[in-house]
């Protein structure tokens, strides 16, 4: 059996997390559509919260795709921000559903899906327990993968500046740093193709 490279391991782990996130998004979309066509009118805050979660997932997916295609540091930041916002959205929505006094255990899902969920407090707790650690793991994986690729926000390598020989001008030091960065990028490019 072939062993996976570090990049393939990150990709596989992240794909599993993204698929779980997609599953949550599909469930939220399903409940949202059912709530819009249900007999009872759903609470507006629930609709806003569910739409927000779907938009955050789409934003995260686009930002991560841009990161994968272009190795862009800004895309890493946006993917992380969207994931943090997803954590907050799931947490606030779950706590609000649990705290809501409106419940009716005998109500059917097709009649009022939102009230059905509100009447079963274990559902939002279960989603929070499963997906908040998943989102936290996604943040960790994105940042580790970006660090593995050598993507950082700065244009300069401060370690190269501090180790540069004295007596050189700033421009000479900058040229040395740029040469080192080009060398590192070539090595990284060669490692990707091995």
TrEMBL record:
Transmembrane spans: 12-33, 45-70, 77-99, 122-142
UniProt entry keywords in alphabetical sequence: Membrane, Transmembrane, Transmembrane helix
Name recorded for this polypeptide: Uncharacterized protein
